[in-house]
Amino acid sequence: MLHLYCLTAPRSEGVAAGVRGLAGAPVRVVSTGALDAWVSEHAEAPHPVTVELVREHDRVVRAALAWEAPLPARFGQDFPSEGALRRALAEREAALARALERVRGAVEMTVRVLLADPAAEAEKGAEGAREGPSGPPKPPAAPDDAQVAKSAAGREYLSRLRERQRREAELRHRADFLQTRIARAVAGIVLEEARTPSRPSSRSLTISHLVARRALSDYRRALRSFVDGEPGLRVLISGPWAPYSFTEPRRE
After folding, report:
1. I want to staple 21 with a disulfide (CB 3.0 to 4.6 A). Which of 37, 40, 121, 208 is the partner?
2. pLDDT digits (tens, 9 = 90+) for 156-188
């Protein structure tokens, strides 16, 4: 069974020599002429998705990145034989070659902006206060009083739901606004941009940028200038990474 790590430009055998993959297995190259596939052989598959194995997978991709931008494979792409791998690559060779050319000479940088929501924190604190003891127990309510209380609780729930939806809409609007601002800050430097879908509860905006290696200094300088102009904004910048976010076909 072959585990696929990434695809690179041809003639990468010397770079892959000595690299170790999952469970310490040696990495070798399967070449199709137009593409080199970095793989390791294993007796069994699929491999369980664990943090350690994913890191081992990424270490091989990083070894390729040190030479040239690879086309990373998502963890878990296994093939029963070298022939099966070659057939799968042959079916998509033209598209894969275009995708590899798309990331050539580039790396992925990640920008994460933390979106503060003071109102949510205030509500959380208020809820915690309501949940604590509030004096001696009250006597049971009369049926009519219980019905009134139930109705009031329902109205309060709907009101809180509407307020939460309003805050989430505000956070989405702020995330869109900040994405536009960041795009303007790095305009002319970034080759492509990909925004990671986020859940409302995440309270963050994550953007991936495809950046030419030679432009990394300009990229970092532009982002530092943006962050300096937004002193209240919490921004985390990481990379360079292999271009995992840019392996899918480009949307025209």
Report:
1. 40
2. 777 777 766 777 777 778 888 899 999 999 999
Distance CA 123, CA 126 (A): 5
Q: In the Cβ-directed half-sphere of 186, how many Cα atoms lie within 13 Å?
A: 29
What is the tens place of the pLDDT at every residue in 137-161? 555 555 555 565 566 676 777 777 7
Structure tokens at 109: 């940088």
- Pair 227, 239: CB distance under 8 Å: no
Q: Report the predicted TM-score, pTM, of the whole model to 2 decimal places.
A: 0.77
HSE-CB for 66 with a 13 A CA cutoff = 9
Q: Return the structure tokens found at 126.
A: 């208020």
HSE-CB of 226 using CA atoms within 13 angstroms: 23
How far is it, in rounded angstroms, from Cα 246 to Cα 242? 9
- Strand partners for 237: 111
Instruction: Please calculate the CA angle 207-213-215 and round it to the nearest 5 degrees.
Output: 80
pLDDT in tens, 113-134: 988 754 544 444 444 444 444 4
Rounded distance, CA 216 to CA 210, Å?
10
